[in-house]
Amino acid sequence: MSEIAGHPGATAVVNESYSFACMRCGHGWEQSYEIEHHIDGSGREFVQYVVNGRVVPSPLSRPTCGNCDNHVVRIMRPGRVASARDAAHRQHRTPPAGPVEVPVAADGSVDQHHWHLSDLLHVFQRKAS
Q1: Sheet of 12-22: strands edge to edge?
Q2: Each residue of 35-92: pLDDT tens digit?
Q3: Whether this model's pTM surpasses 0.70
């Protein structure tokens, strides 16, 4: 087989991406890999994972969290971290607060009711039978 241009010795190159989530600290990240297929001197096939032109360990063997160096890392299909970040960003977006209006009765008086915790918790109280 012939070599792939830009990948010396490679007979095929596949691009794959993965999402990772650390189960210890919650850090999430995504990484794309060029997976180069090679044949050694004995005719056996092997692969090399390449990131930014550097050979790296297989992400499927024992991934390491870049935040806490732990190895309890979940591997997921690509896009999972980005979609979780987008959902979290949308969830935490709060509209800006506007002016607070105080209810005014028809006679011009302002409702001065003060709430007490007991007023809010009465729905949880058991009724005597």
Answers
A1: 54-56, 45-51, 28-39, 12-22, 73-76
A2: 999 989 899 999 999 999 999 999 889 999 999 999 999 988 887 666 656 655 565 5
A3: no
Residue type, 83: S
**Tokens of residue 25, six digits:** 């600290």
Backbone angles phi, psi at 124, to 5 degrees: -95, -10
Distances (CA, A) of 126 to 89, 118, 120, 122, 123: 40, 13, 14, 9, 8
36 exposure class (CB count in 10 Å sphere: 0-12, 13-18, 19+): buried
Element (H, E) at 74: strand 73-76
* Sequence-distant (≥ 6) Cβ neighbours of residue 103 within 8 angstroms: 110, 111
Average pLDDT of the chain to the nearest whole number: 77
Distance CA 79, CA 75 (A): 11
